[in-house]
Amino acid sequence: MKTKKTNAHPGDLFVVVLPDGRYGAIRIINQVDKSLLIAVTTYLEPRIPSVSDQQLQMILIQNRFSYKNESAISWYDGKIPKDFLYIGNIPVSEHEKMVECNKYSGSLSSSCAHPVYWEWRWLNDRENYENEIQAERLKREEENKHRIHVPKQMMTDVEFWTYISMLDLQQKDEEDAASPLVMKLAKTSVSNIKRFDETLAYKLYLLDTKEHAKQIGEFAYNEEEDYISADGFLYARCAAVAKGKFFYELALNSPCDMPKDEGFEILISIAHEAYVKRTGKEYYYGTGCSYESFENKEGWR
Question: Where is the DUF4240 domain (predicted)?
Answer without folding.
Answer: 155-276
